[in-house]
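Hey, sorry to bother you again with one of my protein questions. A protein chain has come my way and I'm curious about its shape. I'm sending you its amino acid sequence along with the backbone structure tokens. I owe you a coffee for this, so here goes:
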Amino acid sequence: MRNIHTPSQVEGCVVDEAQHALFIGEEDKGIWRFDAKPNASTEGKLIIKAGGDLVADVEGISLYQGASIHGKNKICWWSQAKVITVICFIKQASLIAKWGVSALG
């Protein structure tokens, strides 16, 4: 077991077992990637920064396990601020899809 710290509040996390990677959504900063191996460093890499397609106030994060898109791993996140969900490739952080939800009435 190890402790991992981020500068502000964490709102979600997901593990990609195939890549031995832990992804953490930090509310105001973005999405971090950490090595998920038990004895790995506690230093992470900020792979997707808040701003642009990732609106600050990240609320959740998950991996896309559906049909292969160009044979690459995908990560999804959503933001309370804009009620937007985004899917992008993990390694290049390049956008695949983006959509939002709104109330009727």
